Structure formats: C-alpha cells, structure tokens
Amino acid sequence: MLYPALVTAIIVFLTVGGQELLGFTMLGRPIVIAPVIGMLLGDVQTGLAVGASLEAIFMGVVNIGGASAAEPGLAAALATTFAIQFGGGLEVALPIALPLGVIGLQLKTLLYVGVVGPFASRFDTLADQGNAKGIRNLHFSLWGLQWFLYSLIPFFGVLVGSEATQAAINMLPDVILDGLSIAGGLLPAVGMAMLLQTLWDNKIAVFFFLGFILTAYLELPLIATAVLAFIVAFVIAQRDLQLKNLRGVKPQSSGTNENMTEEEIENEEFLS
Questions:
Q1: Residue 67, SS3?
Q2: In angstroms, how far is the first alpha carbon of the chain from the final one?
Q3: Closest Cα partner for 70 from 181, 171, 145?
Q4: Looking at the structure, do residues 48 and 158 belong to the same domain, yes or no?
C-alpha cells in the first residue's frame, strides 16, 4: 500500500496545494484529481467514473474566504484510491467521500491557523522593512510546509486502509458531526457577509436588495437572476461609455457659452 499512499499524497500536494499557490486554477477538483490518480494506479476507467460522480456532488462547492463547505480535492483523492485498491468502485468511494470532504476542510483550516497564522506579524515586519525577498521566501516556505503536512493526511489514510478510515469517522460523537453540519450551513452566510463588508458601496446597495427580492420573494432561479444582473450591468456600462464620450467632446467656443461653466456645457451637450 506504500505506492498508492505516495501517489495519493503527491497528487494532493500538487493539485490542492498547487491551486492555492497559483490562484484557484481548479486543479483541485474531483474531475481532475480522480482521473490522474486512476491513471497512475492503472485504472483510468474507475478514476473517470469516480471523478465524474464526485464532481456532480461537489459541483457547487467553491471555498472562498469564510464561505466554505467541504474540501473536494482530499475527498476525491482518497475515495478514488480506495475504490481502485479495494475493487469496490463507486460503492466504496461515494459513502466515504462526503464526510472526508467535511473533515478535510476542518483540517485544512486548522493548518491555516496553526502554520500560517503565527507568521502574520512577521510578514508585516518584512513589509515595513521593504524586504521583498524575505516575504517571498517566507511565503513559499510556509506554503510548502502547510501542504506537506496536509498531504500526510491522505498518505496515512491510504496506508491504514479505507476500513480504518471509515471506523475513525464513525468514532466521532454525533454532537461533533452535527456541529460540523451546522457550521457548514452557517459558513456561507459568514463568507457572504465578509465579502459584502469589503465590497459594500451605498451607490450599488440597491442592486443587492433587488437581487434579494428576486430570489427570496419572487423565487426566480439563480440563472434567471444572473441573466438579469448581466443585462443591468450591460446597460450601465453602455451609459457610462456614452457619458465618457460626451466628456471627451470639446465644446465649440461661441458667444453664448463663453461664460458658461464646464458643468453647464456638459449638461447642455447631454440634453442635446
């Protein structure tokens, strides 16, 4: 089991950790991870089947800031390896993928807090000193350490086998599992609040409330709401472009507008 454990750990390090380094390139999605592991373990068909099935389950999971629900990459890697090694196919992969995804996210968060968090003040100190090289070296060192520790989870998970992993999950008290489920339901709201705190502008607040009314009260599907938002954004962009072009037009000098202010000239041109 050493080779499958090494393969799973390396793929998690390069894909889940790699997408964090490169800027969420979607390398850590099940549809990418599962076929790669299947190819390396000699069963591409099972890898494709598991990847497609888990991608359909985790398709709506995109962890941004506090809006986090599960870690699809770790779940896909372990589920694919277990399905191939124990010959159970999807029957082995799917039941353990969901709890592994939830627990994997909690472990990743703990590593963020425990490995990267203590060095936040060090980054501030290096920035005050203008030490760009020190910031770069510390950044890559912490990235390598964090994801090396994270890749040990699938390594030992595969090494001890799927039955032991499932038994360890079953040993968790119901109160902890229920708490994780409740927290998973609250985190999207917390993440949205954090994003709004950063992006909030009173000039565009009306659009937020418009979207809320469309989805909560008129019960429009998200696709329809997104299309309406695109139309509104397109109309506003066209209007801004027209105003920009009007400001670029030089007013003709004449006796009637020599004493007019620039704002009055623009208003006159806009109305004409």
A1: strand
A2: 79
A3: 181
A4: yes
Enumerate the H helices of 66-219 as residue ranges.
72-85, 90-111, 120-129, 132-160, 162-170, 174-199, 205-216
Q: Please tell me the predicted confidence (pLDDT) of residue 68.
A: 61
Tokens 């390139």 locate to 25
| CA dist., res. 68 & res. 74, Å (int) | 14
CB 54 within 8 A of CB 75: yes
Do residue 194 and residue 217 come from a single domain? Answer: no
* Residue type (1 letter), 117: G
Q: Identify the residue whose tokens are 């429009």.
A: 220
Which residues form the domain of 266? 201-251+260-272
pLDDT at 1: 72
246 and 164, same structural domain? no
Which pLDDT score, from 0 to 100, does residue 60 have?
65
User: Residue 64 phi/psi, 5° resolution?
Assistant: -125, 115
Tokens (6 digits) for 56: 């359909």
Structure tokens at 91: 């029957």
CB atoms inside a 10 Å sphere around CB 13: 18
Residue (of 33, 187, 18) closest to 105 by Cα position: 187
Q: What angle do CA 24, 118, 9 make, to 5 degrees?
A: 45
Residue 191 has pLDDT above 80, yes or no: no
pTM for the predicted model, two decimal places: 0.59
Q: Is the per-residue pLDDT at 241 higher than 60?
A: yes
Overall number of domains in the chain:
2
Give percent of the chain above pLDDT 90: 21
- Under the banding of pLDDT at 50, 70 and 90, the label for residue 35 is very high
DSSP character at residue 112: I
